[in-house]
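Re: [help] complex structure
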Amino acid sequence: MLLEGWGRYPRFESECVRLQSPCTLPGIMAGTRGLIARGNGRAYGDAAIGLRLTLGALGLDRMKGFDPQTGRLTVEAGVLLSDILASFVPRGFFPPVVPGTKQVTVGGMIASDVHGKNHHRDGSFGDHVERLTLVLPSGETVTCGPDINPDLFRATVGGMGLTGVITEATFRMKPVETGWIRQQTVVADDLAGALRALDDSDAATYSVAWIDGLSRGARLGRSLIFVGEHATRQEVAAELPDADPLPLAPAGRLGVPFDLPALTLNKASVAAFNEAYFRRGAQKSGKPFLTHWNPYFFPLDGVDRWNRIYGRRGFLQHQCVVPPATAHAALSEILDRITRSGKASFLAVLKKMGAGGSLMSFPMPGYTLALDLRVTDDTFALLDEIDRIVVAAGGRLYLAKDARQSRQTFEAGYPNFGRFNDIRSALGARGHLASHLSSRLGI
Amino acid sequence: MTENHKTMLLVGATSDIGRATALAYAQAGWRILLAARNVDAAQRNADDIATRTDAAVSVHPLDVLDSAGMPGFADALPVLPDTVVCVVGEMGDQERAQSDLDHAAMVFRTNFEGPALLLGLFANRFLARGSGTIVGVSSVAGDRGRGTNYVYGAAKAGFTAFLSGLRNRLAPSGLRVVTVKPGFVRTRMTAGMKLPPLLTAEPAEVGKAILAAAEGKRGRDVIYVRPVWRGVMSVIGAIPEPIFKKLKL
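Output below.
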């Protein structure tokens, strides 16, 4: 079967097996080499495409238990974040960390050690995981956590599925009074202002900046910074007296029914969109207002299959993180290259990151910038140039988004990868668990 | 906390449709009894439903091919349920069923005999109590026999006729019987088959349709989960036999 990631580049043939129960896994693992587990296919590049075999984990979709006293939730790895939100927001619980889409599995969130708008305060999703059940390449089922088999745990969180197949996880949900977010928008005129605004929001639970990737010169990096807190019952009762304090995600969704022609997103249309978006955001700046959790955390989930807007050739997402000391210079240079190339980036997101993380986790203290670029013949050369800036700044690229970085870029950004490969060797995982990403990067 | 809640018994709790139907009832606040032959697989679904909804869910072993064990099964339930939904079904292998008598008998018994006997037993207990709703999941395959799946279709036709007769018998006492014909459903049973999207329902859709038909204000007797199936099946039903017999269906 021809498989692709969310960016729709690259595409590879792979055999596929759908897992219906964790019980069948040891037999499959023992009998095949070159396999990787796949959740809901939201990794952008080639991370969840098996070299020979891809194990579809969406059938491992049972929740196993919840303790309202502690917020401790145990689920199978194929459970979707959207299902967790649907079951638990009405009961006053929210996941400790959510990425930019709710259409991801718990197993995928752990393998990519995803971060959210609260990374500067709360760390990544893996920092909230207490237990994992993992089927090793040998077929053996083991549990691990920060206090049990900690080396295996630290290699598995952020390990891109390359230590074993995650079948089950336990993590803590956090109690919330409402499902509404008290949002405040801050306008920054340039990149320095955006970084400063993110620093000023260190005490806020959630913060993220949207950058107008087309502004140049003195306005390079002009941004809207969205700061958010979980709203209290009192706030919702006062400002939205008719609203459900613990609302579900709205049902109806727009969709992109087919690949849009490649011309749809050109420099002019993106510039027009960005200008309108910036003005609308700037108008709402200053005064806090209440937003439903769904559009605040998952704005793009409202458009089904939005990845089709980039046309048939797909797109590349480039997400890097750079340390604070080099951030301003490196990010300015990157934004400058992008704007000068005339490549329209529909989405450019800037976020401050804090400490924490596992052996191969993407987050590190600093600032992360994510860009979307349509695949064209010269996109690759442009991104190679940007990679050199990232490496020189002491940064790295997010493996869950990656489809094309070089081994040199990867090795420079992930100094623990030698240790990771030692652990993989000891598990018999090298060659046995293999995605197109791992074979491309020599993991 | 469950004392004031209504109770439903779901027979065939390890199937995708069974799981989705029990979940729909649990979301509506019902207490759930799951019956299945594979107790471990049923427990996996019970934990899932209980975690998602906070409902009380328990598992009760049952083999629908063991008619002798049925009264004991019903006696052992913690309570006589308000509603029983039977989703038991097994498509079998038509070609094998044409020559392997045991296989054909298994398909007949799983799709017709077992479900009919069990629902008949609950019908009597519901009559004695004076209340209860019975839901049987049959199939559009029972509306007309086709060369590619008539063993399964014949069993479902028998089950459809049984439900129709049971409804007729119980109606004067105010008891309801609902026949459900899901059409194509995206489940493990149909995984890998090419199914027309407009005619194919998700299991969750079937669960919600069953809940609405059986417990909604405007109860229904016979439902096709996707209404388009009623049209499709009336066209198939209207084709004259001399023509129908020559079609590859």
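The longest strand of chain B covers residues 31-36.
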